[in-house]
Amino acid sequence: MSMKQIFLLSILLLCYTSLLAQDQNIAARLVQEQLDAYNQRDIEAFLEPYSDSVKIFNHPDQLLYEGKEGMRKRYGPRFESNPDLHCTLMNRMVLDNMVIDQESVIVKKGNPPVQVFAMYKIAGNKIVEVYFIRPKIDHP
User: Fold this and answer.
1) 120 near 99, Cβ under 8 Å?
2) pLDDT score, position 20
3) 10 Å Cβ neighbour count for 7?
4) Which fold is adopted by the domain 3-133?
5) Which of 49, 51, 52, 54 is CA-nearest to residue 29?
C-alpha cells in the first residue's frame, strides 16, 4: 500500500470516527433532553425529542403505546398528579444510535424507587423507539 493510499485511508477513518461520535452525541443529547423535561414534568419539552410515530415497548416486543399523542395521554396526567416524580440517571451507555439508561424513578416520596432500564433508538435526530426492562416482581 502506498503512502498516498494509507493517508487517504486514514482520512476516511477519521471522518467515519468523527461522524460516529457526532451521532452518539446527538443520541445522548436527545435522551438527556427528555430526561430533564421528565424531571421538570414539562410535557411539551418531554415530547420534543420524540418522533411523531415513536413506539414504546416493554422489552422485548410488547407494544405499550405509540405516537406522541399516546405518550401525551400517558405522561400528561402522570406529570400533573405526581409532584414528587423524579428520575435519577444511574448509568448511561451509548453505542451508535442506541442509548441505554439505568434509571431510578421516585413516583412518590417515601416509597421505594422503581429501577428500570430504558433503551432508546434514535433515527433522523429523533427518538423513534423505547424499550423498558423492569424487574419482575414475584408475589407469594
Assistant:
1) yes
2) 46
3) 10
4) Nuclear Transport Factor 2; Chain: A, (3.10.450)
5) 49
